[in-house]
Amino acid sequence: MERTLVLVRHGQSDWNLKNLFTGxxxxxxxxxxxxxxxxxxxxxxxxxxxxxxxxxxxxxxAQKTCQHILDGVGQSDxxxxxxxxxxxxxxxxxxxxxxxxxxxxxxxxxxxxxRRSYDVPPPGGESLKDTAARTLPYFITDILPQVMSGKSVxxxxxxxxxRSLVMVxxxxxxxxxxxxxxxxxxxxxxxFNADTSVLSKEIINL
Length: 206
Prior knowledge:
The protein is an alpha/beta fold and 206 residues long. The protein has helices at 14-17, 31-46, 60-72, 99-106, 108-116, 128-148, 159-169; strands spanning 4-9, 53-56, 80-82, 152-157, 187-192, 198-203. Strands 3-2-4-1-5-6 form a six-stranded mixed beta sheet. It is an enzyme of class 5 (isomerase).
């Protein structure tokens, strides 16, 4: 029985391009971001990948990435579930600020701690630990059962919501996950054993 999960971070967004903290804000994809999502769909189609169900966040950059991928594999009308449990990490008071301006205001070291530490949240926002506290229960109750029933599942979401899943799937420590960055629009294909452990992982370079 095949048990397949494909995780994809959304394509480049307008605020990624402008070097802004995004979080739960809802900017659109850039032209490059659209191209990345289309390329991901084309690559998965070349692999003859077909999905039984798709999951995405409550934010349009992930939703549009998901749709471009489904279009690319010839499954434009596939059932897609949207849930804010898969939203990006909430950057709180940093949301909308230029990252360089934030460093000038709070200092390089403090901003680095907010961005890269596992359990220190920015003012009014979420740490990666906080993000995992909402993404992992949703993954366990809604996404993983679909995978374990023998389905192929697509999940298009965000850098940090997906990092919280990758941390568990790849069995990374709270220190190791800090060095993990997910490329925009790059699919990660996981295959699972019957006991829910990971059989294999393949990163599909575009």
